[in-house]
Amino acid sequence: MSGQKRFLVGSSLLASGHQAGEALVPVLIGVVIDQAVAGGSVGDLAIWLGALAATFAALSSCYRFAVRASERAAEQSAHDIRTELSRRVLDPRGGAEAGHLPGALVSIATEDARRVGAIASAVPFGVSALAGVAVTAVVLLRMSVPLGLLILLGAPPLLWLIHLVGKPLERRSGLEQQRAADASGIAADLVGGLRILKGIGAESAAIARYHRTSRDSLDASVRSASARAWHNGAILAMNGVFIAVVALVGGRLAAGGALSVGELVSAVGLAQFLLGPLSIFTMVNARLAQGRASAARVAAVLAAPHAVAAGTERLPEPVRGRVRFCGVSHAALTGADFDIAAGELVGVVTTSPATATALLECLSRDVDPASGSVELDGVALSCLDPAEARGALLVAAHDADLFEGSVLDNVRCESERDSAPAIRAAGVDEVARALPDGLDTALTERGHSLSGGQRQRVALARALAADPPVLVVHDPTTAVDAVTEARIAAGIREVRRSRTTVLVTTSPALLAVTDRVLVLDGTSVRQGHHSELVDDENYRTAVLA
Question: Residues 439, 432: contact at Cβ < 8 Å?
Answer without folding.
Answer: yes
